[in-house]
Amino acid sequence: MSVIEVPQGRLKTPFYDRMRAVDTINSWHDWKGYTTPDELYCGETEYFALRNTTGVFDITPMTKYRITGPDSPDYIDRLVTRDMRKIKPGRVAYAVWCDDRGQVIDDGTIFHLKEGEYRLCSQERHMAWLTAAAIGFDVSIVDETADVAALAVQGPTTWSILNNMGLEGLEELKPFGLMHFDFEGTELMVSRTGFTGDLGYELWLAPEKAEALWDALFDAGKDYAMRAIGVHALELARVEAGYLAAYVDFLPANATVRTGRTRSPLELGLGWLVDFKKPNFNGRRALAEEKRNGSTWRLVKLDIEGNKVADSSYIFSDAKAAKKSIGFVTSAAWSPVCKQNVAIGTVRTPHGKVGSNVWVEVYYQREMHWNREMAKATVVDKPFWFPPRRGATPPEPF
Amino acid sequence: MTDKFDAIVVGGGHNGLVCSALLARSGKQVLLLEANEQVGGAAVTREFADGYSVSACAHLLYNLQPSVTKDLKLKPALASEDMTTIALDSDGEHVRIRGNSVLGAKEGDAESYKAFYKRMTRFADLLKKFFNKTPPRLGTKDLKDLVTLGQLGFDVRRLGKTEMEAFLRLIGMNIHDEVVERFDCPVLKGAVSLDAVLGTHLGPRSPNTILTYLYRLAGDHGRIASPKGGMGSVSDELARVARDAGVTIRTGMPVKRIIVGNGRVTGVETEGGERFDSLTVVSNADPKRTMMTLVGARHMETGFTRRIHHMRAHGNAAKLHLALDGLPDIPGMDKKEYGERIVIAPTEDYVERAFNPAKYGESSPEPVLEITFPSFRDESLAPTGKHVLSAVVQYAPYARKGGWTDEARAEFESAAIRVLEKYMPDIAQRITASELLTPADIEREFHITGGHWHHGELTLDQFLFTRPVYGAAQYRTPVDGLYLCGAGAHPGGGVSGAAGRNAARAILSREKAA
Predict the structure, then answer these.
(1) Is the domain of A192 the same as that of A331?
(2) Do A280 and B299 touch (CB under 8 A)?
(3) Residue B303 and residue A99: Cβ atoms within 8 Å?
(4) What domain range is A51 assigned to?
(5) At B2, is the pLDDT very low, low, confident or very high (cuts 50, 70, 90)?
(6) In chain B, which residue's Cα lies nearest the Cα of A280?
């Protein structure tokens, strides 16, 4: 009888030892079975590295599926709401997928690696849904989460560092593009993608070469004050960039019990991802009906007066909170780089039109005592952090 | 070349014929395309040996809905009607069942059976009412749906307190517990059990077999008739009615795909490459073939295709046809009784044991049989002095382990003949030719995925509001303009015509509303 060893406790990514070597805090948490750092030495310092130089974040635990087979283009196109036929090989698409009722299951990025070969990346696991969606299609879906080591390299000096590392021609890579390089005899894929709303890249390669890549990267970046970072720094950056997080700003539809707690892409401000010109995609019927009849909820990005972070605050249509609340904040932060009190929230339509004002009820504590403040907020359209360098090709050298 | 029609019916089974005839009667230009050379689907008569013909699948009429015969003014020619069921006993002490009467069972059984029959037919009448209606949608505010749903509740309540309780208790129960509680005579218990499981992948101890029993009674209270000229004559009669109503029937035209554009049907394309345009396509094919093969998953949504994919539709009934040089001797049976329906299911446990191997993908070494000698009252089916035996033999699981190889088929056929020999000692010598249709053959020849009589198991989870699946239970499918009208739709299979009639009515009432 053969005994299969099952790993106990949290898994370690191939970059674990390198992160551990620079870790002085020892604060880690679970991310889909892997141990992942909250902070490595100082959350603020890590955040400023991300915004001013370069932050390196281990995204190996991110769920990765390889989707191949003759029907894979049709399969992907039916799965997500946007038109994937327009995403050529070598391109990456941010996409969202829904259940039959048009409620969001998750969002993620889909890499069109080669003709008919895709990688789908998301925060949550989706094998059950992807398998069900494959009924009637000749496709193969393989979870390659553990087979691909990945690093997010984000910040204004990233191109210079990667160029230093010898990735020739990277300057031509446009946002949402991907390129392949040789790294010590192994294929290194670089995509111009990220979760920070700034210039940045994601690096993908076989786990065996993970440490070598880390070393080469940090060697190339030693004059650029680059730092390994934890989740806290990244989380702040993602709120500034106005990106959504599953289980925070929306609930995955297939893991939600109560009716009315899920959201459609139209309710999440992702209408631009829904292409009704496509004859069919999952949730189309329901979304078309929602489009006709109007949505119940609207996602809002809020610029809030004052500096008290509006964590989990109720949102009101009036300053006195005399009427029923119209919604609540799902993500909030003081943005150091924008010098702005920002939040992402969800309100009932017709409230929350861009440019309109709402009031958030902020509770904060001063030496044990709680204070309450009604802060005026403006609904904004653009992400809070949206520097021109994010889209500049070629990127500016440092 | 393309032709335009108001409606195209894919598949000329009896339900397709009923549906097309009713649509044509309301003034529609209807085209019916049948893959085989003969209409009727599984309700056909065919020659299986030189001069010997038999109903290829269904061989008895018990479920033909009076609503259908009335609407279409149908009068099928019958070779025999109100047939007696003779449940064979190995000692010749056969039990004869007809209507509410039982002869030859143990003391008290006749009385018990009468009470049992009374209750069952009452429940069956309740179901029958709903078999002739589109099932209501659940969770809707549509008045018509709510009224139908309320009616269902009201009808159940109107049974009275005791009978309502009995109905609710029995509807999900198994037939085994009921027959054991009521009857003494093993042969009677076996025969009733068999009636509950014929054509299903269920044994008498399987939950839900009271429902399947009621389903049998919901046509004509279980009265059985045998059509003259075999089941094909019923289909021929339906085809005649359809043609008279103006339906264009084209046979030998297998449909390759149902064309969908922008979420709605626009027509069909045949294997031969011909295209026919229509904004209404009605499929008599089973739900899986219709949705997964003819339409294709890419035109539907994941939750729906998953439900269709997981619909249970594996047949378990085989059909055995024997050409005989004369009637076999059946000790204990009168010469004139050869025209009746004969069953071999000596005890309720025998039926369950026959089912046991089927759970594990093996065929029964000692199968149960429902037998007729259609040539006894219908000389057209065999040369003079010769006879045919037509039998439903269970269990022969569709997904047989190792597949239905020639050896597997030979093994199952000889198992059936061994069982027959116990009651008809000279049967083997009388056989001049034989044919066995396993569910795999039924799938191939009649294009029924899984080779199931009902196009899908007839169980509570695939019943009424959820037949074939949630999202297509009102004959409409998620693809605009595409409807189901076959046995996979409510209420189910058997030569009943209810699905075809209900579908036609659903299509017409929808058009009226639009």
Answers:
(1) no
(2) yes
(3) yes
(4) 16-60+148-229
(5) low
(6) B299
What is the residue-averaged pLDDT of chain A? 96
The one-letter amino acid at A5: E
**Structure-token match 């070597």, residue found:** A21
Share of chain B above pLDDT 90, in %: 90
Nearest-CA distance B451 → chain A (Å): 20
Residue-level pLDDT at B453: 87
Instruction: Choose the closest CB to B302 out of A132, A279, A285.
Output: A132
| pLDDT tens-digit readout, A280-328 | 999 999 999 999 999 999 999 999 999 999 999 999 999 998 899 999 9
- pLDDT tens across B88-111, in order? 999 999 999 999 999 999 889 999
Contact A284 B292 (CB under 8 A): no
**For B300, nearest residue in chain A (alpha carbons):** A280
Identify residues of B whose CB sits under 8 angstroms from chain A CBs.
Answer: 260-263, 292, 296-306, 309, 471, 478
Q: Quick check: is A121 in a domain?
A: no
Substitution target from B302, B307, B469, B479 for chain A, most A beta carbons within 10 A: B302
Position with higher pLDDT, B148 vs B507: B507
Asked whether residue A336 is assigned to any structural domain, the reply reads yes
Mean pLDDT of A64-79: 97
CB-defined contacts A:B, below 8 A:
52
Question: In this structure, are A201 and A303 located in the same domain?
Answer: no
Torsion sign over Cα B417, B422, B423, B428: positive
Distance from CA of B10 to the nearest CA of A (A): 21
Instruction: Determine whether the interchain pair A100/B301 forms a contact, defined as Cβ–Cβ distance below 8 Å.
Output: yes
Which CATH number fits the domain that encloses residue A260?
Answer: 2.40.30.110
Q: Are residues A340 and A291 in the same domain?
A: yes
ipTM value greater than 0.95: no
Asked if A261 and A361 sit in the same domain, the reply is yes
Name the CATH architecture for the domain at B2-44+231-312+452-513. 3-Layer(bba) Sandwich (3.50)
